[in-house]
Amino acid sequence: MRKKLFCLLLSWVLLLIPATVLADDYPHEIWSPLDRFAAALEAGNDAEMYEYGMQVITIMENQPDSHLKKEFLAGKYEQVSRCAERLGYYDKAVELYQRYLPYGEYMGWTDGLIYAKKKIYLLTPYLEIYVQDKAYYPVNYGSKFEPSRGVYFGSVYDDDQRILDFDNNKILTYFPKQNSTWLLYLEFGENPRELGRYNRYLTEAKKNGIGVEFAWNTQSSLEDIEQYDAYIKDTIDFLDSYGIPVFLRFGAEMNIGANGGNPEAFVKSFRYVASYAKTKQNIAMVWSPHDLGALDRPYSLYYPGDEYVDWVAASLYVGKYFEGKKEHGSQTDPLNTYFCMDEFAHPVMRMTELIQFMQENGIRKPVLIAECGVAHYTRMEGEELTDWAKIQMRRLYGDLFLRFPQIKMVNYFNVKMENEVNAYELYNNSAMNDLYNQLVENPYFLSSMADTASFSYRPFDGGRTGTSITVSAAGYYPKILYNSVRYYLDGEKRGEFWETPYTVTFDGLTEGWHSLKTELVDGGSVKMEKEIWFEVQREVSVFVNEEKVVFPDQQPVIFDGRTLVPARGVFEKMGTQVSWNGEKQEVTVTNGEKTFCLVIGEKNLTVDGRTIDMDVPAQTINDRTMIPLRAVSEAMNAKVDWSEETSTVSITYRN
Length: 655
Hints:
eight-stranded parallel β-barrel, 29% helix, disordered N terminus, five-stranded mixed sheet
């Protein structure tokens, strides 16, 4: 099956109060608030439960360490955390869940620890502002086919009833932006040479410059992987023969499927395949768990090691209800919490755990959303979800890439599966199809494996900008679906936006300092706000011997009345050599006769051992080394002129 189904029953072992203790074991002052807490619990009075629960927690925290204290507090922290959450005291709930962790760990309450850790990030709101920056490059790991900026995108089309193939002309009829990738599937054991569609698909991909995510699905852990050696090599040779970028996704979703029953065998089989695939220049190996697996199948059991993996991937499906069913009795909250469903449904929340795993284990790889979908209908409940799904689709193709810039490829699962409780396919929902097309029109989504985006989303915390800026926001507040964002420029409201990523452009900004206040709003109520101060400067043009210098990313800036330029652009145009010593934080400029040295943060310019004082130091701006233009140019015997009217620097230099 292309999308593996799974069912996971959770048994939360959350012991709340010690069963057998003597009254004398507790401090005397605890009994009155504990009785009131019990009465509030019986009456379902959350406000009083919280009030008296906090009192008994404070009393017990002040007692000497003992098993009884730890057992009691483990239970009470869990109870009062839930109570604070129900009351909407999310900051306090997060604090209490965090305080619960060491006690739950002491008690060995594994399920309770998982539950609390999930609640901590699901109840933590955020509001982040980003600016579109042509000079900024996000994190890059140097992996095979990794774009320097932007996101590869595509889908699967051979089940789309309008297309039933990977005919690019047909695809463009319904999805008019050219894809950079396609998603193809092969079941392990099938021979792609004998199935004519694969030659047709790959030939079409090659003709149109499209890369292929090749999902090679396995239905077992392949303990006997060696017996398939000839088949494995022949399949990889077949993929290699087309000479197109292939992202080989082998044994996906092992953390929920039959192929993960034996983790050691899975790791061995992945390494076996990778060892041969990585001898091919056009094949990148993709390790691809499901975004949220079974409780007893953590990612760590299945990661084969950095040397075998080029990209890390995840399947990411945003559904409203667990297994399409709204109610699961006492398990409803644990299931919604663990699988980010219903009130916690959000693609960023679903991806958080895998990103955390990578960060905690130092895994520095680009990330691929190997297959994804948003449920616009649930067959189990017979509920139409298109309006809900539109919001989640905007988050999936908007917030996700702002929040996690290491995600650099995404493929949509445009397939109808009769045994799937949710409908994700685009071809029978015109509203979702149209919205998808609208979202991928963003130039950050690349139409070719050879492309790179002209800008990146840089976290905006102030600093210097030009006279025009385009900002976006990624905002999350627990259990709220319909957020809006308000922007205030210098105290004046400049609009309220209802569609993520809440993008707005401010043109014609005057020079000097400005404030940008952003509010995350729900139903007219401000949930979070953030204010940023930034300085606007005019664009500075630089000419060397009457020829304009083009700066591909970081532009010149004015600092304390002096122009700073990227170390290489101007001076290499003057025929010099520029080198950088990261350990010493030192820039060296050599023009054949003289050597000039500058150290970041210092106002000294050293010329052949002689020190010259500069008005401003060299410094790092947006990860680019910026050096004072006039000081270095004049030290090289160049003539420097400045036009205040046009903000132009003219350098006359003869080598």
